[in-house]
Amino acid sequence: GVDYPGQPPRYEWADGEDKVHFACRTCDKLFALEDTTEDTPPAKAPKGFQVQGFEVMLYGTCPECR
Hints:
This protein has a domain at 18-38 and 53-66. The protein is mainly β. It has strands at residues 19-24, 30-33, 55-60.
């Protein structure tokens, strides 16, 4: 499941791909963004940790609310 602040848990297909999501603070709509993980800088895990994926949450205003 994906936890969005103030929202019930949401579930997506487990396709094995890393995700970037956008939450509009005006209308509370949530968006799964495509082809954005290449622009996301990788986080370095501490020594001994094995990273298996990541999820990034962006916040702001969607085009409909601007």
